[in-house]
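Table S2 (continued). Query chain:
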Amino acid sequence: KTSSTIGYERKHNTAVAPRPRATFIADMNENLPQRPPNMYTIVERNRGDYAQEEAPLQLLALDA
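Corresponding output:
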């Protein structure tokens, strides 16, 4: 099937079916994958300043 309508999907697709907000939140928080081991490191880097730790790469011209 290459196309559909919102009405069809709401009727036949449980992921987009109308439901109470609390039910939607509970459904979205079930069966979450395990967090990657480096998640807290990534979060800390994202919250920190954006100072570059390494020198930027030199761009080289390509031969045509």
